[in-house]
Design goal:
The complex is a heterodimer of chains A (658) and B (345). By secondary structure, chain A is an alpha+beta fold. Chain A has 15 helices and 19 strands. In chain A, the strands form five sheets. In chain A, strands 4, 7, 11, 12, 15 and 16 form a six-stranded antiparallel sheet that branches. In chain A, strands 13-14-18-9-17 form a five-stranded mixed sheet. In chain A, strands 2-3-1-19 form a four-stranded antiparallel sheet. In chain A, β15 and β16 form a beta hairpin. With 345 residues, chain B is of the alpha+beta class. The chains are: A alpha+beta (658), B alpha+beta (345). At the A-B interface, α4, β19, α11, α12 and α13 of A face β5, α5, α7, α8 and α9 of B.
Chain lengths: 658, 345
C-alpha cells in the first residue's frame, strides 16, 4: 500500500464528493415517485373484447397508448408518464387527484369508424362554431392546444360533426378582409364564400399544379406539433385527403404482368393510378362549386340528406341528432388559435369490427392494403359506389376514417372506380400522401396501425389504481428521511462507542456514502428513475451494509494486531482479506438486488435498485476512502496498535499479552 | 476482545429443540390464523382517510361503506383518531359504487383527503407467481454460489438455515396478524441475501480453519467449527446490530405513520429476518454442518486420532481459543507440534 497510491485514491473520491455537493447546492434534486409527490399511478391491462391476442399486440398497445396520451393531455397533468411494461400499460399522473376522470379518460375504448363525408366546416364559418370546440387550451401549458375531451362525438349510428386532425389546423379568420397580415392570402380559406379562388385548395405540396404558396414541405407531416402552428401562420389543409385515394385491390386471378403490386396483378382497368393532381377533389371545382360545397351548411341545405344512400337497402341506422346533444360548456379560445377542420359525416356504414387486416404495401407508391369481412365488404361496396357518383357530380367523394372521434384520414375514391359500381370484393388499397418514399412509407405504416388498432378494440382495464394526496406524499417523504437520519445517528453512536477513532473514520465513510447516494439518485432522476418510499427504505437498509464493511475491516485489523503484527502490516493484510470478504458479501447482496429488480413490479423496484447501487457504492468507498484513510493514519502513527486494541469496552484480549 | 468460547456445536440438541419449536409454532399459526394478505394479493379497494374531523369508530365507517355498496368492509382508526384505513372488496374506480362509497366515507368522517387504492382480482395471482419465481431462482443461485465457492454441504446447511428463517418470519406475521404485501415479499427475499451473507462469513472462516484441522484447538471438525464460529461471533453480532439499528428506526417510524404501510411491511420482515439470519447462521447452519461432516469417514478417523492424543470426548468439541491462537501465532519460541516443515501463518 504505497503512500502515493493511497493519497491518489483519497483525493479522487473527495473530488467526486465535492462535485456532487456542488450539484446539490446548485439545486439538483431527485425526481420523486408518486407515493412521495402525490398523484395517480395505475397499471392497466389490455382486455380484448373478443378473440385472441394478435402477434402484433405490442404495436397496437403502443398505438393505444398514443391515443391515451392525447386524451390525458386534456387533464392538465404536468408530466404524465404513460409507458408499456410488457403487455401492461403503466400510467403515472403526478399531481392529479380526480380518480374518476382519469379512469374515464383511460378506460374508454377507442372506436374506429368509416364515415362518408358530406361537408366540411371551416374555422370561422358560422356552422363551425355551432358545434363544440375541437380543442381546448392545454391546462398544463397555456398557449398550446390539445384535443377537447368534450369534442363532438356522434355515435356510430348517428350522423354529425367530427373533428379533423389537430396536426392540420388552421387559423380562423374572423372578418372577410384578409387582415391576418402575416398570413399569405393564398393559403387561407375564405371566411365567407366570396373568394374561393384565393383559398388554397386542400392540395398538398406534392401537387405541382397548385399554387405554391402552401407551406414548406415539412409541415404536412402528421407529426407537426400543433404548438408551432401559432408561429407558422401558414398551414396546409388536409394534405392527406388530396393524395389519398382508395382503389379496388386487383383480383388475384389476373395474369401476372408488369404490375406494381408484387404478389398480385392488376386488371388494367382497375389498376390503381398513382395519386396525383387528378385526384384532388377540390382542384377542378369552379368558384361556385366550391362555394356551394362550403356554403351548404350556411345556406341551410341539409348536408345529411344524401346519407341514406350510403347504406345498403334496408339498413337505416341514421338518426337525426339535433336537439339531443347534451349541453356542453362552451370553450372560449383566444383569437387566432389554430383550429382543425370539422367534417360533416354520416352514420358509419362500417366500423373497425369489419376490418380483417390492414397492411402497408408498396406499388408505385406506398399504400395500405385493407381487407374487410363479408358484411364489411358489402357495405364498402355500397359506400364507394355512392361516393364515386358523388365525386363525379362534383362533390367531395371522400370518406373519413375516424378513430376516437378524430378524423385520421379522409381518402377520396379513385377516378378509376365507376359511379354506381364501387369497390366490391372486400379489398381495397388506400394510397397515402407524402413527398418522398420514406415519408409515404411512414404514413402508410401509421395508417395501417390506426386501422389495425381500430380493428382490435382493446379496453384498458385497471389492474391497480392508486391515488396519493400531496399531503400524504410529503408526509411520507419527511418520515422516510427522518427514519434515515435516526438510523444514521444510532449507527454513528454505536460505532464511536465500540471503535473510537476507527469509528470516526467509519462515520466519515458513511457520510460520504450518504452524499454520493443522494447524488446518484438525483442523477438517475434525470434518466427517469423516480425515488419512491421503497427506494428510501433500500438506502436506509444499506446504511447497515456500509457500516458493516468498516467493521469487517477493523475487526480484522484487531485480529492481526492481536497476533503481534505491526500496525502497518496489520492494516495491509487486513485490507486484502477484508476486501475479499466484503466483495463476496456485496456480490451476494447485489445479486439478490438484481434478481429482485427483474422480478419485482412497480415502485418496489426502487428498493432493489437503490440496494444494488448501494452495495456497489460501498465497495467503492471501502477501496477509495476507508483504505487510504486508515492506511495513512497508520502510517503516520496516529492510529496505533494500542488504540485499536483498546477501543472497546470489553475486556482486553488475553492472547498476546498473557 | 477475547475470543469467546461459547459451545455452539456441543449443544446442538438445544438449538434443534428451539428451532423446531419455533418452526412448529409458525406452521401452526399459518394453518390456523392464516396470513393477512394485502389487497395486492387478493384484490380489493382500500381507502386512506386523512384529516378526520368527526368522532367516529371503525364500526361507523364499516356501516357507512356497506350502506353505499361496499362489501367485506374492515376499518381501522389510526393516528390517534386523525386518520383511518378502510379496506373492502374490489370496486373499480369510476364506477357508481366506488364513487358512492368514497362519498359516504368522506361525509361521515369529515375528512380532508381520501386516497384510494384499487387492485383488480387477477393482479394478485400474477405477483404471487412472480414472488414464487423469485424465491426459487434465489435458492438455486444461493446453492450454486456456495457450492462453487465453498462446499456442497455448506450450501445445503445454508439453505436449511434460509428456509428456517423464512418460515419463522412468515410465522411471526401470522401470529401478529400483520399485513403481508409485496413489500413484505421483497423484504423476505432481501433477508435471504443477508442470511446467506452471514452464513458465508461463518463458512469462510471455517474453510480457512480447515487448513489447520488436527492441531490443538481444532482437533476435530466439530471443535474447529466451534472455534470458527466463536472467532466471528463478535463480528457477526456487530454487523447484525449495525444492520438492525437503521431498520429498527424504519420499523418504529413506519408503524407510527398513517400512509407508510410500505415502510412498515418492509421493516418488520427485515428486522425479524435479519435477527433470525444471524441466529440461524450460528445456531443452525454451523452445528448442522459440523454434525453432517462428522459422519464422514475421514472425520471419524480424525476423531479417533484426537481421542488417542487427548483423552476425553468432551474436550474435542469445546472451544479452546488460547490453544488455537497459540497455534497460529507467527512468532513463537517453541513448536507446538513436531511438524517443522508445516507452514505457519
Amino acid at each position: 500500500m504505497k503512500r502515493n497510491n493511497l493519497i491518489t485514491s483519497l483525493v479522487s473520491i473527495l473530488v467526486v464528493v465535492a462535485a456532487v455537493i456542488g450539484f446539490l447546492v446548485a439545486g439538483a434534486r431527485p425526481q420523486l415517485g408518486l407515493d412521495l409527490q402525490g398523484g395517480i399511478s395505475a397499471i392497466y391491462t389490455p382486455v380484448l373484447d373478443e378473440g385472441e391476442a394478435p402477434d402484433n399486440l405490442a404495436e397496437i398497445l403502443d398505438e393505444t397508448i398514443a391515443i391515451v396520451r392525447s386524451r390525458v393531455d386534456s387533464l392538465g397533468v404536468a408530466e404524465p408518464d404513460i409507458s408499456r411494461q410488457g403487455t401492461d400499460v403503466l400510467v403515472q399522473l403526478p399531481g392529479l387527484q380526480d380518480a374518476d376522470r382519469a379512469q374515464e379518460v383511460i378506460g374508454t375504448t377507442a372506436k374506429l369508424a368509416f364515415r362518408p363525408v358530406v361537408g366540411l366546416l371551416v374555422p370561422g364559418s358560422p356552422g363551425y362554431d355551432e358545434t363544440p370546440s375541437c380543442i381546448i387550451e392545454d391546462p398544463a401549458s397555456p398557449g398550446s392546444y390539445v384535443l377537447n375531451p368534450d369534442r363532438p362525438a356522434p355515435p356510430e349510428t348517428q350522423q354529425g360533426v367530427v373533428c379533423g386532425p389537430l396536426t392540420v389546423a388552421q387559423t380562423p379568420v374572423e372578418t372577410p378582409t384578409d387582415t391576418e397580415s402575416d398570413t399569405p392570402t393564398d393559403t387561407e380559406f375564405p371566411t365567407d364564400t366570396t373568394s374561393p379562388t384565393d383559398a388554397a385548395s386542400p392540395a398538398d405540396t406534392a401537387s405541382p399544379t397548385e399554387t405554391s404558396s402552401t407551406t414548406p414541405s415539412g409541415s404536412d407531416s402528421p407529426s407537426e406539433d400543433v404548438q408551432s402552428l401559432g408561429d407558422a401562420d401558414v398551414v396546409v389543409v388536409a394534405a392527406q385527403d388530396a393524395t389519398e385515394t382508395v382503389t379496388e385491390a386487383p383480383s388475384p386471378t389476373d395474369s401476372a404482368t408488369a404490375s406494381e403490386r408484387p404478389s398480385e396483378t392488376a386488371n388494367p382497368t382497375d389498376a390503381p393510378t398513382p395519386s396525383g393532381t387528378e385526384t384532388d377533389p377540390f382542384a377542378d371545382l369552379s368558384e361556385e362549386e366550391l362555394a356551394d360545397l362550403l356554403g351548404q351548411s350556411q345556406q341551410g341545405g341539409d348536408p345529411y340528406a344524401e346519407c341514406p344512400s350510403y347504406f345498403a337497402e334496408g339498413a337505416d341506422p341514421t338518426v337525426t341528432p339535433e336537439g339531443d346533444a347534451p349541453a356542453v360548456t362552451p370553450v372560449t379560445l383566444p383569437a387566432g388559435a389554430p383550429q382543425p377542420l370539422k367534417y360533416q359525416v354520416c352514420a358509419a356504414p362500417l366500423t373497425g369490427d369489419n376490418i380483417d387486416d390492414a397492411r402497408p404495401n408498396l406499388s408505385n407508391q406506398w399504400g395500405v392494403g385493407l381487407d374487410l369481412d363479408g358484411p364489411g365488404g358489402d357495405a364498402f361496396g355500397v359506400v364507394t359506389a355512392q361516393l364515386a357518383c358523388d365525386r363525379d357530380a362534383g362533390g367531395l367523394g371522400q370518406f373519413a376514417i375516424v378513430l376516437d372521434d378524430v378524423v385520421e384520414s379522409a381518402p377520396g375514391v379513385n377516378d378509376s372506380v365507376p359511379c354506381g359500381e364501387g369497390i366490391t370484393g372486400g379489398s381495397a388499397t388506400i394510397t397515402v400522401g407524402g413527398s418522398s418514399l420514406d415519408e409515404q412509407e411512414a404514413e402508410a405504416q401509421d395508417l395501417a396501425l390506426v386501422l389495425r388498432t381500430g380493428a382490435l378494440p382493446l379496453t384498458l382495464v385497471p389492474s391497480t389504481f392508486q391515488t396519493v394526496s400531496p399531503s400524504l406524499g410529503s408526509q411520507s417523504l419527511q418520515n422516510g428521511l427522518l427514519a434515515g437520519l435516526i438510523g444514521l445517528f444510532l449507527v454513528a453512536i454505536y460505532l464511536i462507542y465500540f471503535y473510537r477513532l476507527l469509528g470516526l473514520i467509519s462515520i466519515a465513510a458513511l457520510s460520504i456514502f450518504g452524499i454520493m447516494m443522494y447524488g446518484i439518485v438525483t442523477l438517475l432522476g434525470e434518466l427517469g428513475f423516480a425515488l419512491t418510499l421503497a427506494g428510501i427504505a433500500g438506502i436506509i437498509v444499506s446504511i447497515g451494509i456500509t457500516a458493516d464493511s468498516s467493521i469487517i475491516f477493523f475487526e480484522r485489523i484487531r485480529d492481526e494486531v492481536g497476533l503481534g503484527k505491526t500496525m502497518r502490516s496489520a492494516v495491509s493484510k487486513s485490507f486484502d482479506s477484508a476486501f475479499r470478504t466484503n466483495l463476496a458479501g456485496n456480490t451476494v447482496t447485489a445479486s439478490a438486488a438484481l434478481i429482485l429488480y427483474f422480478l419485482a413490479v412497480g415502485p418496489v423496484r426502487g428498493f432493489a435498485l437503490t440496494l444494488g447501487l448501494a452495495t456497489l457504492l460501498d465497495i467503492v468507498i471501502l477501496y477509495f476512502f476507508t483504505r487510504p484513510v486508515v492506511g495513512l493514519l497508520a502510517g503516520n502513527k496516529t492510529l496505533t496498535a494500542k488504540s485499536v486494541r483498546g477501543a472497546t469496552a470489553a475486556p482486553l484480549r488475553s492472547g498476546g499479552a498473557s | 476482545m477475547r475470543t469467546p468460547s461459547f459451545d455452539f456445536v456441543g449443544r446442538i440438541r438445544t438449538w434443534v429443540a428451539i428451532s423446531l419449536i419455533a418452526f412448529l409454532i409458525s406452521l401452526t399459526a399459518l394453518g390456523v390464523r392464516q396470513l393477512n394478505l394485502s389487497i395486492d394479493f387478493v384484490g380489493g379497494t382500500s381507502y386512506t382517510i386523512e384529516g378526520v374531523t368527526t368522532d367516529i369508530t371503525a364500526g361507523d365507517l364499516n356501516s357507512a361503506a356497506e350502506g353505499a355498496g361496499g362489501v367485506d368492509v374492515r376499518s381501522q382508526i389510526v393516528d390517534d383518531g386523525a386518520g383511518a384505513l378502510v379496506r373492502m372488496g374490489a370496486l373499480e374506480p369510476g364506477t357508481d359504487a366506488a364513487v358512492a362509497v368514497e362519498q359516504a366515507l368522506t361525509d361521515i368522517s369529515g375528512a380532508s383527503q381520501v386516497d384510494v387504492s384499487f387492485v383488480g382480482p387477477t393482479w394478485g395471482d400474477r405477483i404471487s407467481a412472480k414472488a414464487l419465481q423469485a424465491l426459487v431462482v434465489f435458492l438455486i443461485v444461493v446453492a450454486a454460489y456456495i457450492s462453487f465457492r465453498l462446499q456442497y454441504k455448506m450450501a445445503m446447511a445454508a439453505i436449511v438455515a434460509l428456509v428456517h428463517d423464512v418460515v419463522i418470519t412468515i410465522g411471526v406475521y401470522a401470529i401478529l396478524g400483520f399485513t403481508v404485501s409485496p413489500n413484505t415479499v421483497i423484504a423476505l427475499l432481501t433477508i435471504l441475501g443477508y442470511s446467506l451473507y452471514d452464513s458465508v462469513v461463518v463458512f469462510d472462516r471455517i474453510e480457512e480453519n480447515t487448513a489447520f484441522l488436527g492441531e490443538p484447538g481444532r482437533r476435530t471438525y466439530s471443535q474447529m467449527v466451534n472455534l470458527s464460529m466463536n472467532e466471528v461471533l463478535w463480528r457477526s453480532l456487530n454487523t447484525s446490530l449495525t444492520s438492525l439499528l437503521p431498520v429498527g428506526a424504519l420499523l418504529f417510524l413506519g408503524s407510527q405513520l398513517l400512509g407508510a404501510t410500505t415502510l412498515r411491511d418492509l421493516a418488520l420482515a427485515l428486522f425479524v429476518g435479519m435477527a433470525l439470519g444471524t441466529y440461524s447462521s450460528l445456531f443452525v447452519a454451523g452445528p448442522m454442518l459440523a454434525w453432517w461432516k462428522e459422519q464422514e469417514p475421514e472425520m471419524q478417523t480424525l476423531r479417533e486420532k484426537a481421542r488417542r492424543e487427548v483423552g476425553e470426548d468432551d474436550d474435542l468439541i469445546s472451544v479452546d481459543p488460547e490453544a488455537a491462537v497459540a497455534a497460529r501465532k507467527p512468532i513463537t519460541t517453541e513448536y507446538v507440534r513436531g511438524d517443522g516443515k508445516k507452514k505457519r501463518r
